[in-house]
Protein: DUF3775 domain-containing protein
Amino acid sequence: MQKPVEREWELSIDPDTVRLLAGKARAISAGLNSDYDDGHEHEVEIDGEARDTHQHDGLIEEEEEDLTEEEFRELVADLNVDEAAELMALAWIGRGDYDLSEWSNAVNDAKQHGAKRVATYLLGMPMLGDWLDEALDAIGVR
Structure:
């Protein structure tokens, strides 16, 4: 764990929002990992004589839908430009792309990245939840 540093800036984004997004990112990552645990990656084998004789009983067989990714995307979409940039900067700091002393540069670079696809970009980070938590620890916000 890094020692918190004295900073001359305050977060625009609420740390509780960052923690919520970190938790959702972990849940999304865990869901993706469990889909591929068996190594078969949803393989389907069909022989030439196979027929679909399975009949559906409507909603009885419908699985519970996991809305975690949709909720993550909606939460990120609700952030203003500064909050979205700070969220990206926190992810980069947690990942080690920037040092905490480079906070302003990280936020400026995140703003240059644009706000349209922030959720998609962040969800592409396999350890996003951990990186967000590490960044909050680094700035002394827990």
User: Anything to note?
Assistant: Confidence is low (pLDDT under 50) at residues 33-38, 40-47, 50-54, 56-64. The two ends are 12 Å apart (CA to CA). The longest helix spans residues 15-35. The chain has six helices and no strands.
